[in-house]
Design goal:
It contains 13 helices and two strands. By secondary structure, it is mainly alpha-helical. The chain has a two-stranded antiparallel ribbon. Helix 8 packs antiparallel against helix 9 (199-210) and helix 12 runs antiparallel to helix 13 (263-288). The two termini are 25 Å apart. Part of the ABC transporter complex UgpBAEC involved in sn-glycerol-3-phosphate (G3P) import. Probably responsible for the translocation of the substrate across the membrane. Belongs to the binding-protein-dependent transport system permease family. The chain crosses the membrane at residues 12-34, 46-63, 75-97, 109-130, 206-228, 267-285. The complex is composed of two ATP-binding proteins (UgpC), two transmembrane proteins (UgpA and UgpE) and a solute-binding protein (UgpB). It is a multi-pass membrane protein.
Amino acid sequence: MQAKRVTFPGKITPYLLLLPQVAVTLVFFVWPAGEALVSSLFAQDAFGLGSTFVGLANFAALFRDPAYLEAVGVSFLFAFCVTALAMGLGLLFAAAADALGKAAGLYQVLLVWPYAVAPAVAGVLWLFMFDPSVGMVARALRTLGLSWNHVLDGGQALTLVILAAAWKQVSYNFLFFYAGLRAIPQGALEAAALDGAGPFQRFRHIVLPLLAPTTFFLLVVNLTYAFFDTFGIIHATTGGGPGRATTILVYKVFRDGFEGLDLGGSSAQSVVLLVIVVALTALQFRHIERKVSY
């Protein structure tokens, strides 16, 4: 049987269909990245009235700055914790929903709702729950003999933003993991059960390998989310404090550029952040993607 092929009536039609996506990529990704790269090579005055070419001096200053190196460490710790927590909970909830079968409709809707919440709103929600004075979670912790004050304790503040960022991303992971679980052939699981494999063994040796492509995709997406898309949560929850305890790289770009008015330095930070995320993605495709069976 000959495979059907779809052909366009004119040679220009495929390019017209690609044009909107190419335009969005150029305007919102390539152009800003190019502007940041050019700006990182100049030292600009605080009022934007003049600039002086300094070459790589802005980049050299970054790696001599203890505050920037601290932000790098906080960013990697934050990204690892958010990715692990969000993906772990997403897989757990997806497995629970899959086990319920058709009765999981309401359960699925409730789990998807958090994804519709704006990052700033999610940050404020968790801020109120953990408020040292009136927060319901902070009060519950005090009844257990545990003190909570993320305004003064940097470790608690970092824990708070990790929980808020992971909660915001769990719904996204749940959708993909649930779709992956529903696509697994039930015959393979039933055959393993007849062979005496328990639920844990079936999950470990059948479900997880078949979910490897989904897991790899979500790993890349979650790391990118943790490095770039958590600005709103941190800004609404801790503002990067106390001190620099929750100042990750993307928030330091904002703080130095918009509050400190160091436009050249913040542009250099943007370029370094982009390079870090691209390098992490490339490493994942080079070393982890090879172990994924499609």
